[in-house]
Amino acid sequence: MSVPHRYIVVEGPIGVGKTSLARKLATTFDCELLLENAGENPFLANFYRNQRQYALSTQLFFLLQRARQLQDFRQNDLFQQARVADYLIDKDRLFAELTLEADELSLYRQIYQQLAIDAPRPDLVIYLQAPVDTLRERIIKRGIEYEQPIGDDFLSRLSESYTRFFHDFEASALLTVNTHSIDLINNPADYQALLDEIDRIHSGRHYFNQSSFPY
């Protein structure tokens, strides 16, 4: 299937299914896949057990990891194939503001500015949403051990941060998808409906939920 956009990003809170969808889209469009590789962060498991103690080290590792990935992206971008990613670099600041104390956030912002990250602009961002109880069920189901201590309060605050961020998002075409009652990975009809919607989008803000399906 031909890719309708050269650079697609899938975003959303923990457990919403962004990495699974990014993988599926990359396979469908036969394009390169860019993942944030959270499992490589040596501080992440401790962060979910003790957020206050490990927030800064966790956040700085992710920032440097993502900056390096995007730098490589930029260097290899010319004449390369299309890409699908499971994160926006802007998400890094969203998490920092959610988890860091004021002095830590000030340090983080200084480091971010020094990195002078020149992130490529996506043609389309797919923002996945789901209620907190759905996120919790999916986190339990996928069984990643270090994610199990994540509390509903953190998931709620994270979801609210994403909602605020995308409310004013205008950097790329945006497709907001309510995933509560659909299965984009295992239901071919749901997935095809999403592909049809992606193919129609060229700019602006769009919303995709069960009521918009053609069946």
Q: Which key terms come to mind for this protein?
A:
8 helices, disordered C terminus, Rossmann fold, 50% helix, globular, 215 residues, single chain, alpha/beta, six-stranded parallel beta sheet
Describe the protein's architecture and organization:
This protein is α/β, with parallel strands linked by helices. It has a single domain, classed as P-loop containing nucleotide triphosphate hydrolases (Rossmann fold). The chain contains 8 helices and 6 strands. A 6-stranded parallel β-sheet has the order 2-3-1-4-5-6, with helices on one face. Strand 5, helix 8 and strand 6 form a beta-alpha-beta unit. The longest helix is centred in the first third of the chain and has 25 residues, at 51-75. The model is unreliable at 211-215 (pLDDT under 50).
Largest sheet: 6 strands, parallel
Q: What best-fitting shape do the alpha-carbon axes yield? A: globular
The CATH superfamily bears the name: P-loop containing nucleotide triphosphate hydrolases
Percentage of β-strand residues: 5-15%
So how many helices? Answer: 8
* The CATH top-level class label: Alpha Beta
By CATH, the topology is Rossmann fold
Q: How many domains in all?
A: 1
